[in-house]
């Protein structure tokens, strides 16, 4: 059985999300009976970090969004001979190199991402959705909810991204990208990766010459995902015509929120970005959390779980995982990405029906408390990791002692 897991604190994290996740999962693992130690490497003085692992090695290590190989292609887990769990939070496209490490276990928060890595012949892949701290799933009395609608996200200059495609890609690839984006927005089941593959096949059937070997699929997928992220957020915000909308999130390096929000949309209030600990406090004083993440079709953004845990009604786009997990209008509220205009009606309805809103939140929060806490994730993770880690340890031992393996 796994007795010890060392968690590596990420060197950086926008809004401190990854640091929050690391601490929350460490506490949850401890509650699950696993010794969890958080280690942080100092770039200028890595010796204490390395000595801690060497002097008291864990059964495996874990980090959110890591660990990628160094510039020479070396993986840290291979150098120390200890399996590593890479819990991917950001785009899968940034972590394809992990398939080159036999000691890396990839944990994805989206089943489509897990399928993606399995398709690349990655041997050890897990589905691990995000979670929340169980202590948050407790109703706080007399909590004034001063924010009618809250949006938590960064601005992505998707128009700028798209304007660069004609210089980066062949015209036919641009047509396939446009088709893939349209298909991704059209329903709650098709991932943008599936949509891209289908679009490229379709363009080839139309007698366009495309040499797949010359397509930079990683770059294409990344551009499509970023475009979908940026556009879906703005579409959802612009759909709200009446209620006050409070945006907490950083601007883009090439654009401001004001560049995308209509000048006559006076109901939108833009705040400075805040660290994640403050985000949780904002959620505790929010009536409705608006989420838009159509690039995820078989998973859930952590905002959904944290929103419900903190007592906010979550209004989000539909996807397969959410429809399995919650019931629209009963424990969550969903909308179609191909019809963002319905958001305004739903927002107005639930802002005016306090009792109904609170009933939906209570049911959603109970589902989160039972099945989507970090404590629940920790128990699942340990159960899934145990046979994988044991097999990897045996392979390491055989590699280090080839004579024993042949006897």
How would you describe what is shown here?
- The chain is an alpha/beta fold.
- About 45% of the residues lie in helices and about 15% in strands.
- It has 16 helices and twelve strands.
- Helix 1 crosses helix 15, helix 7 packs across helix 8 and helix 7 crosses helix 9.
Q: How are the SSEs placed, and which strands pair?
A:
Blueprint: E1 4-8, H1 17-31, E2 35-39, H2 47-55, E3 60-64, H3 76-80, E4 84-88, E5 104-108, H4 111-119, E6 125-127, E7 147-152, H5 158-163, H6 165-168, H7 171-186, H8 192-205, H9 217-239, E8 245-248, E9 268-271, H10 276-283, E10 286-291, H11 302-309, E11 313-317, H12 320-325, E12 333-335, H13 342-352, H14 354-371, H15 374-400, H16 402-406
Parallel strand pairs: 1-2, 1-3, 3-4, 4-5, 5-6, 7-8, 7-10, 8-9, 10-11, 11-12
Helix pairs in contact: 1-15, 7-8, 7-9
Essential attributes:
about 400 residues; six-stranded parallel sheet; 16 helices
Strand order of the largest sheet: 2-1-3-4-5-6
**CA gyration radius, whole angstroms:** 22 Å
How many β-strand stretches? 12
Tally of separate helices: 16
Q: Overall pLDDT, averaged? A: 95
| Low-confidence blocks of residues | none
Succession of helices and strands: EHEHEHEEHEEHHHHHEEHEHEHEHHHH
Query: Strand content of the residues, in percent?
Result: 5-15%
Report the major sheet: 6 strands, parallel
Secondary structure category: alpha/beta
Portion of residues in helices?
A: 40-55%
Shape: globular
Distance between the termini: 26 Å
Short description:
This protein is an alpha/beta fold and 407 residues long. Helices cover 45% and strands 14% of the residues. It has helices at 17-31, 47-55, 76-80, 111-119, 158-163, 165-168, 171-186, 192-205, 217-239, 276-283, 302-309, 320-325, 342-352, 354-371, 374-400, 402-406; strands at residues 4-8, 35-39, 60-64, 84-88, 104-108, 125-127, 147-152, 245-248, 268-271, 286-291, 313-317, 333-335.
């Amino acid at each position: 059985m796994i007795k010890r897991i060392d968690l590596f604190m990420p060197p950086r994290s926008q809004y401190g999300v990854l640091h929050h996740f690391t601490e929350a999962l460490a506490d949850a693992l401890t509650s699950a009976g696993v010794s969890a130690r958080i280690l942080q490497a100092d770039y200028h003085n890595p010796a204490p970090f390395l000595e801690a692992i060497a002097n008291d090695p864990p059964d495996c290590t874990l980090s959110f969004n890591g660990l990628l190989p160094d510039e020479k292609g070396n993986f840290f887990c291979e150098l120390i001979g200890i399996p590593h769990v890479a819990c991917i939070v950001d785009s899968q496209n940034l972590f394809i190199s992990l398939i080159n490490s036999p000691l890396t276990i990839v944990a994805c928060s989206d089943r489509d991402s897990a399928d993606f890595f399995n398709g690349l012949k990655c041997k050890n892949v897990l589905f691990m959705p995000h979670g929340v701290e169980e202590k948050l799933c407790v109703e706080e009395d007399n909590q004034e909810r001063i924010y009618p609608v809250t949006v938590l996200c960064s601005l992505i200059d998707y128009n700028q991204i798209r304007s660069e495609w004609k210089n980066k890609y062949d015209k036919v690839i641009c047509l396939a990208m446009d088709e893939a984006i349209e298909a991704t927005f059209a329903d709650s089941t098709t991932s943008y990766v599936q949509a891209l593959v289908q679009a490229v096949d379709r363009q080839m059937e139309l007698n366009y010459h495309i040499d797949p070997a010359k397509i930079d699929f990683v770059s294409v997928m990344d551009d499509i995902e970023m475009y979908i992220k940026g556009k879906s957020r703005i579409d959802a915000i612009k759909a709200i015509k009446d209620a006050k909308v409070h945006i907490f999130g950083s601007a883009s390096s090439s654009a401001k929120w004001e560049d995308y929000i209509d000048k006559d949309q006076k109901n939108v209030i833009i705040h400075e970005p805040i660290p994640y600990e403050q985000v949780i406090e904002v959620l505790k004083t929010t009536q409705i959390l608006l989420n838009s993440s159509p690039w995820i079709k078989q998973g859930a953004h952590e905002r959904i779980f944290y929103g419900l845990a903190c007592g906010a009604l979550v209004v989000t786009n539909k996807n397969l995982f959410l429809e399995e997990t919650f019931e629209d209008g009963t424990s969550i509220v969903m909308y179609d990405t191909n019809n963002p205009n319905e958001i305004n009606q739903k927002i107005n309805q639930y802002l005016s029906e306090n009792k109904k809103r609170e009933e939906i939140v209570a049911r959603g929060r109970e589902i989160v408390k039972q099945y989507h806490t970090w404590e629940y994730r920790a128990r699942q993770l340990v159960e899934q990791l145990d046979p994988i880690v044991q097999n990897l340890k045996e392979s390491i031992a055989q590699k280090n002692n080839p004579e024993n393996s042949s006897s």
